[in-house]
Amino acid sequence: MKMKMLAIVILLLTGSLFMSDTTFAAWTQKKGHSYQQLTFSYYSTDERFSTVRTTMIKETEKVTGLGGTERESQTKYEAYSLTYYGELGITDTLTILTTVPWKRFTSKSDTPGSSGIADISLGLRYNLSKDLFGSGLLMSLQGIVKIPEAYKYGSINLNSSLGEGQYDTTLAVLFGKGFNKGYAWLNAGYNYRFENNKNDPLVFKPSDQVKILIGGGYNITPLVTLRGFLDWTTSVGNASLSRELIGSSFFAVESDSLREHVLIRKNIGLEPSFLLAWVDLVIRITPNMQAFLTYARDLAGRDSSLGQTYGMGLIYIY
Q1: What local confidence, expressed as pLDDT, does residue 266 receive?
Q2: What is the CATH number of the domain that holds 177?
């Protein structure tokens, strides 16, 4: 049961780890042109930032502290992924984008891992202005829907699932500007998270999120580019649980009055906030083909895991 809860927490946190930085950038593809990326990555964590401290006494979870954020150990969790990300220009100002991740989860607990297609994302990016107020700043609007239909969502307390089990939709305003040897971008959005009723009446809704990302790239040489971004994501605090889930015997918390708080903040992890740093080195192989190496790490957080990601992949542009 503990491993299932940890799996949910990880899935709620690592969505951006399997995407390209171009997912968040403001530029659209020209009509008929595309950007395609295939990434292999490895994520691991054995620590978390927590505002709820508990200990197990005779199979009952006793709360030992609330408030403040402390780092604590957790069961080691690993995720391997092979992710396709693509963009295609429908017109010069409208681009369709998609992310299709294959994932494999393992842990150091007795709970078996799982593998297969995880949450698929599908979105549109529309360019509103290529020269905002004559500043040279590009502005776009982007919407993305996360689709949890490629896998079977298991029991909340017994099975590891390949995704979070509920739909999400993110609307963001994007800004970008090119420079002599690089570019910079800003992505500001709101992620609305729908209710997960796959185990009705054991129903939960993760908190909506405000997401601010800032990044860019710099051409070190004509063949080598350094890219990176910071992802600041904060929960707005509107997570909820059904009464049946709060009262479920799956979760033996010492106090009924604290049960909902512990489930939202720790056991299921429905209100995570975090700061993530991502950097990658891109090497041009041909005018249309590039290879890259990636490293990402959680820098800070609240009720979220502290992990890191290593990755490599190929990019094809035409």
Answers
A1: 79
A2: 2.40.160.40
